[in-house]
Amino acid sequence: AIAAVGLSSRVTQISWALFFGISTGVTVLVARFYGAGDMETARKISYQGLLSAVILIAFMTVISFWIAEPFLYMMNVEAELVEICMEYLQIALWTLPFMAMIQISAGIMRGVSNTRVPMLISLVINIINVIVCWLFIYGNLGMPAMGIRGAALAMLVSQIVGSVIALWAIFSEISGIKLGKEDLGPLNFSEIKRIFRIGLPSSAGDLFWQIASIVMTSVIVTFGTVALAAHNLGLQAEGISYMPAAGLSLAATAFVGQSLGAKNLNLARRYIQEIFFWGMIFFIFASFLLMFGGKWIMSLLTNDIEVINLGAKYLFLMGIAQIPLEMAGVINGVLRGAGDTKWVMYIQAIGMWLFRIPLSYILGITMGFGIMGVWWAMTIDLFVRFFLVAWRYNQGKWKTMEV
């Protein structure tokens, strides 16, 4: 079941790449106009981003149902496991439009420095997800025991509730922007074009990453279910460091966008220095935790000793790469906030397709190091991408970019 959920996420994450890009475009533009004091344009951009995202994701949801099964077979997944994955996806894919609404709404609010409401929405979603999982996976309190379908149902219910709250928020004062009737209307393609000009490179970069991850998964499944479970649970465990790092990256995007919109480069520099400082403190802590607490962390996720021991090796390597990984993410946030999304895309593509994938085949299969070879390839890729994004940041071209 663990392996099935991990494999199924590869299907949903392709659509995630699309609304991540739209959300990035909306956040950058809203932040710029908010910083410049032009709230009318900020609201119009917000509505157009939300409307276009929902239309596109509804289309992507239909496509996902059609391609899901052949997609899984393309990753060399065994037929029995594909059947389990499809049980999950028949419910989970319906979450995509609701996830899009939440993501775009959160992007709008972050653009006006409102991180509190998106955080509370995320908290509500997680609480509901845990409760519904408890009820329907194992059949507690007389509810039907649905197994993996119960996990998918929990995700769907939590995302529906989250989307309702998110939409209510952006049409109320609590959001900090408050869309009104005057902001509604048909698609405005000139505004959508601005959103996509910034957002599509982010979508493309994330899509490159998702496709590369599918290729990586097709390699990893050849090493057996223990390796696959250790990899998926390792990614899940590593997520304890992703959330704060993602928060800092999003903060960098919003604050840099607002500062550049206000034509205040010194303010942008101060925000960046502050984010870098607190980021480094956390990343050092996370690095040591993953390197030396790997077995303990894995034991919280599974009782399988073989998976725990193998997963701990993954976490040790990711602990080594933790600082460059997370600092690269924060610098990416700075570049996105300035509108320099194309270079973020280029660097993602270079790291994944010129380093991670070729080295995974060479180290994992050709040289016979197995799953450890794949994890070493991932580590090398993370260092390469850090050096590339740091080089782009130090060029300073982000300071004068127009959006």
Describe the structure.
It is a single chain. The protein has 403 residues and is mainly α. The chain has two domains: 198 residues, no CATH class; 180 residues, no CATH class. Helix content is 82%, strand content 0%. It has 14 helices and no strands.
Percent of residues in β-strands: under 5%
Estimate the global geometry from the Cα principal axes.
Answer: globular
Give the helix/strand class. mainly alpha
- The tally of helices reads 14
Mean model confidence by pLDDT = 90
Question: Nutshell version of this structure?
Answer:
The protein has 403 residues and is mostly helical. Helix content is 82%, strand content 0%. It is globular, with a radius of gyration of 21 Å.
Short key terms for the protein model shown above:
mainly alpha, 2 domains
Set out the fold topology.
Blueprint: H1 2-35, H2 39-74, H3 79-92, H4 96-111, H5 116-136, H6 148-170, H7 189-220, H8 225-261, H9 265-292, H10 294-299, H11 305-320, H12 322-337, H13 341-366, H14 371-395
Helix pairs in contact: 1-2, 1-3, 1-4, 1-7, 1-8, 2-3, 2-4, 2-7, 3-6, 4-6, 5-6, 7-13, 8-9, 8-11, 8-12, 9-11, 9-12, 11-14, 12-14, 13-14
